[in-house]
Amino acid sequence: MTTTTSSGETSTYPMYCDYSCEHAEFPEPDAVGACRRDQGVWCKEAKKYNTKNKKCFFQSGAKSAK
């Protein structure tokens, strides 16, 4: 899905959250635990965590990112 951000930039969001997304970062180990680090994804665009392989915050029908 391609959307336009508030700053006017065009961005493409995947259907499901994973590390192939340009907005994804590995979370801090202290936030989710070192052994679960790969299961949580920090979304730079939404500024919050999402579960890996869960529907992207910005896909239609997903809960609001705010």
Protein model, in words:
The protein has 66 residues and is mostly beta strands. The chain has one domain. It contains one helix and five strands; from the N terminus they run βββαββ. The longest helix is centred in the middle third of the chain and has 4 residues, at 29-32. The radius of gyration is 12 Å and the shape is elongated. The chain starts with a strand and ends in a 15-residue tail after the last strand.
Offer a few descriptive terms:
three-stranded antiparallel sheet; mainly beta; elongated; 66 residues; two-stranded antiparallel ribbon; 5 strands
- The tally of structural domains comes to 1
Quote the distance from N terminus to C terminus: 18 Å
Task: Work out the helicity level.
Answer: under 10%
Please tell me what the overall shape is.
elongated
What's the story with the biggest beta sheet? 3 strands, antiparallel
User: What proportion strand?
Assistant: 15-25%
Oligomer: single chain
- Helix-strand string: EEEHEE
Query: How large, in whole angstroms, is the Cα Rg?
Result: 12 Å
- Strand adjacency order, main sheet: 3-4-5
Number of helices: 1
Compose a concise summary of this entry.
The chain is built from 1 helix and 5 strands, in the order βββαββ.
Please give the structural blueprint.
Blueprint lengths: L1 E3 L5 E3 L11 E2 L3 H4 L7 E4 L4 E4 L15
